[in-house]
Structures are given as C-alpha cells and as structure tokens.
Write a structure and sequence with these properties.
By secondary structure, this protein is mainly alpha-helical. The chain has six helices and two strands; from the N terminus they run ααααββαα. It has a single domain, classed as Up-down Bundle (Four Helix Bundle (Hemerythrin (Met), subunit A)), CATH 1.20.120. This is DinB family protein.
C-alpha cells in the first residue's frame, strides 16, 4: 500500500467519522443544555480551524488565523457545512497530489507566530490524528450526557466502505 492509498483511506475515514458525528449532534442538539452544546461546538470548531490552517499551510498560503478557534462559536448547521466542505477539499487534494509533493517540506507560521516545518504528508497525518483526538473528546462529552456516541473507528469505516472485507476466508 502506498502512502497516497493510505491517505485516501484515512481521509475517507475522517469524512465518514465527521459526518457520523455531525448527524449525531443534529439529533441531540435540542436535548443538551446550551452550556453543553457550546462546549461540544467549541471543540469541533477548534478541530475545524486547525484543518483550515493546515489546508493553507499545505498550499503554501498564509492562513490568517491568530488562534486555533474563532471569536464566536458557529451554530451547528453552519459548522457542519464548513466541515463537510473542508473534508471534501482534503479528499480532492489527496486524490490529486503527487508523491513527490507529499515529501516536500514546507515552512509555515503557527497561530502564535512561531515558525514550523513539516512535509505535506506530515501535515496530512496531523490533520487526521488531531481530528480523531477531538472527535473522541466530543464522543466522551456526548456519552457523559447519556447519549449514544457516533461510530469512529478506522476498521468500522473500512468494513462499511468495503463490505467484502467482512467476507469469510
């Protein structure tokens, strides 16, 4: 399996897991307190902003963010649309990127102004792991509210996306 093939699977998984979480939140949005919903949305918004920051970094563009959050927390519907759009961008990007581009090291600025250097492949890996961490954090918040959590495992995604993987040998 090539790095690009793995990245395609991982970003397919990220998109699927984000969709599942957003659908769950739409179902429970009216069943949680405003304080609980804000905590959930701030966490998801943070992960989304970081996705957008690294989208800019990968393209060698200035991201314009001064923080890894926003001054006001978007509503769930608005945030959902933005996350879906960003996930689609990453899927298209990974489909089109050339292997030598993945290896290229790029210098960029963090939100605190400090410089950093990572390859595009490392940045993509960061987006995957960072998002998974925060989806897990939100899943924990949701289960503490006695609500079911959304599915969020790579194996679950692979077996849903490719049912033949479940076939007996």
């Amino acid at each position: 399996m090539s790095s690009k093939t793995l990245l395609l699977s991982l970003f397919g998984y990220k998109s699927w897991a984000d969709d599942e979480l957003l659908a769950l939140l739409a179902d429970v949005e009216n069943d949680v307190t405003d304080e609980q919903l804000v905590a959930i949305l701030e966490t998801i918004n943070h992960a989304h902003v970081v996705d957008r920051i690294f989208m800019s970094n990968i393209q060698k563009r200035t991201h314009g963010y001064r923080d890894t959050g926003t001054s006001s927390t978007p509503k769930l519907a608005e945030l959902s649309e933005a996350i879906i759009e960003t996930d689609r961008w990453y899927l298209r990007y990974v489909e089109q990127v050339e292997p030598e581009e993945l290896a290229e090291t790029i210098t960029f600025s963090f939100t605190d102004g400090a410089s950093g250097q990572m390859s595009r492949e490392e940045m993509l890996a960061h987006v995957i792991t960072h998002g998974a961490y925060h989806r897990g954090e939100v899943g924990r918040m949701v289960t503490q509210l006695s609500k079911p959590s959304s599915p969020d495992t790579f194996t679950g995604y692979l077996h849903q996306a490719e049912p033949a993987r479940r076939a007996s040998m």
